[in-house]
Each structure stands twice: as structure tokens, then as C-alpha cells.
Amino acid sequence: MKRVWSVEESVLVGASADDVYAVLSRVRDMGKWSPECFAVWHRGRVARTGTRFVGFNRKGLLVWFTTCRVTRAERPSAFAFRVTVFGLPVAQWGYRCEPEGSGTRITEYWQDLRTGRGARLAEFLGRVFTGTRPADRAEVNRAGMRTTLGRIRTAVEG
Question: d(Cα 127, Cα 111) in Å, to the nearest integer?
């Protein structure tokens, strides 16, 4: 099976891009949307470019944490963050919000950053902590994105 290095999913939401962005940028609420992330530790209320936070994740009995840094916080169109484990690059996650009709199209994207120096160690740690082979991570994330976007749509529209 050929390894996939990036994935995107999108959903149309019946709300303004500004309202959607307000939800996406509340990093403490990620545990409400994501099927893997169950909690986020973050000082302060607003996540801006450069803001750091820690994500606590779970898959079955496996629990792990990641260190994250916001790389884009451009209201109302883009929010993204870079994920590392023990200082090793793991992934870039992000959201784009684009007005469409009377709503907003939210696109969630993920890019695997486990390349170059330290990649093998990062892949090994990912397998140990998450139980997911690097070759399977894209499809696991695609399924998670669909769940996440559905929960965000429900929250924003509700």
C-alpha cells in the first residue's frame, strides 16, 4: 500500500465564516470535536499565531500527548497548527473557511511531517503511542476528520 502524506475533507455549514472560525480557534474545545483528542491544555483564552498548547489523545486503551503550536490564525479564513512529539515534527493540521452560498465550507487538512531527520523515530513513537502504522495514518485521519467536521457542523448550526 502506497503511503499517503496528506488528506483533506470538507463540509458545508449553515453559518458565517466568522462564526465557524470562532469555534475552530477555541483549541480547548478540540476534545469535543475530535475522536482522538479528548483534552487540550492551553494558557489563555484566544489562540493566536505562535500560541502553544498540549493535546491529550486516546485510541482505545492507548493514551498520548502532543505539543502543538499555532502556525496560522487568520480570522475568519484559516486556522492551523503544527504537532510535535518530544520535539520531533509529526504533522500539520489546519482548517480553511470559505464562504459558499449562505454558509461556509470548512476544509480540514492534515499533512504528515515525519520526513527527514528524526522521521523513523517519530514514526516508531507514533506506532507505539497510537497503535497505527504510518502507512495507515492517512485513512485513520480521514475517518476522524469526517467525525470532527460533523461534530463542528452540529455545534455551529445548533
Answer: 17
